Amino acid sequence: MRETERRAAEAYRATFGEEPEVIASAPGRVNIIGEHTDYNGGFVLPCAVEHRVAVAAGRGGDGLYSADFEERRPTGGGEDSSWADYPRGVAWALGEAGYEVGGFRAAFAGNVPLGGGLSSSAAIEAATALALDGLFGLGVDKKQLAVLCMKAENEFVGVQSGIMDQYASLLCEAGSALLVDCRSLEAESVPLDLEAAGLALLICDTRVERGLADTAYNDRRKTCEEAARILGIKELRNASEADLQRLSGEELKRARHVISENGRVMEAVRSLRARDYEGLGRLMYASHRSLRDDYEVSTEELDAFVELAREAGAPGARLTGAGFGGCAIALIPPEAADDLARTTTRAFAERGFTEPAFYKSLPAAGAEVLKAQT
Ligand code: GLA
Q1: What is the pLDDT of residues 13-41, one digit of tens each?
Q2: CA–CA separation, 322 and 256 (whole Å)
Q3: Which of 124, 203, 289, 363 is the most exposed place for a label (fewest CB within 10 A)?
Q4: C-beta of 153 in contact with ligand 1 (< 6 A)
Q5: Mutate to test the pocket of ligand 1, among 31, 39, 47, 164 (most ligand atoms within 8 A of CB)
């Protein structure tokens, strides 16, 4: 059992005075490439990180306990704009889909940095979904659970995210990235054995977060819908480079990013299958430029880290997730990662930026359910 799973089980015992029936956990994610493509029906290529959220749960009674916030909240009773809305939202979405979820109690413990762009919210949703599926014997497959987690996030919590984070948290495999076709919702693992390549992921958390609830994310989505409308297609996934001639202004820039980024994801998959990490890295830098210049979601901090990574000889680096702050990643030999982190911290201080945080990870396992040990 992982440390987070053990902590969730202990918190359950201490709070509810009995053994949990089910223990499940789910990871945060970074996106290797394929940004702002999911809600355009395009391709994404995320991988799970080693940071996880674990839940211990049992049927009956009432109560959600967070070991990290040291706080107990009711399972039922509607939303209250707290962390508890994520598990409640998942139970609600399962119910909406016709699954019978009875009363339950649950305790949570995690180490996914909160609000830092590593999808802690998808991790708590995915862990809850698997736990409820196990507790009530629902037999829902992981793809369907991911779709219901997204529904919870969109309609219960009220954040307009795409499908990437929930898919990544539920379906990723260790040593792999997950190629998701966000139109058909087909997904397949692609080898990402960074360890064998002498590389690791260094995650730079700029600790500047504007959040998806902010208008900027929704504005980007609306502009993409408008571009698709002008082109007379359902989603930008269906657009080609030739269509760009029929667009101008913001629609042109946003669509150019989406179309080129979808192409880069497919190329990245080819690079990975050929174990060509230099090739993958070049695509990551190109993705960052496109997000900076055409999609306009980068920040000075994210640009600075990517530039420092390049100077340090990292094969690839880019912002990951929505942008507007949050995290950037670099592919870098593990022995060079600490140096890059130190150089970045110094450079950020000199430029008056918030002090960043760093995490190292290898592509980790997706969500898992464990039977409780009695
Ligand atoms: C956030 C959303 C995802 C996706 C990314 C951008 O992480 O939750 O669904 O849209 O932004 O690629």
Answers
A1: 999 999 999 999 999 999 999 999 999 99
A2: 17
A3: 289
A4: no
A5: 164
Residue of 214, 180, 189 lying closest to 41 (CA atoms): 180
State the amino acid at position 227 in one-letter form.
A
Contact indicator for 100, 136 with CB cutoff of 8 Å: yes
Query: Cα(74) to centroid of ligand 1, in Å?
Result: 29
Here the tokens at position 16 are 């509810």
Question: Which residue's CA is the nearest one to ligand 1's atom 11?
Answer: 322
- At 78, list the tokens: 């509607």
Report the nearest atom of ligand 1 relative to the CA of 44: 12
Residue whose C-alpha is closest to residue 257's, from 230, 233, 221, 282: 221
Instruction: Please answer whether residues 220 and 160 qualify as being in contact, where contact means their C-beta atoms are separated by less than 8 angstroms.
Output: no
Instruction: Pick from 33, 36, 185 the residue to mutate for probing ligand 1's pocket: most ligand atoms within 8 Å of its CB.
Output: 36
Catalytic annotation present for 338? no
Q: How far is the CA of 186 from the centre of ligand 1 (A)?
A: 18
What is the Cα–Cα distance from 114 to 119, expressed in whole angstroms?
8
Q: Are the C-beta atoms of residues 223 and 296 closer than 8 Å to each other?
A: no
Q: Which residue type is seen at 294?
A: D
Distances (CA, A) of 129 to 56, 84, 172, 184, 371: 12, 14, 15, 22, 15
167 ligand 1 Cβ < 6 A? no
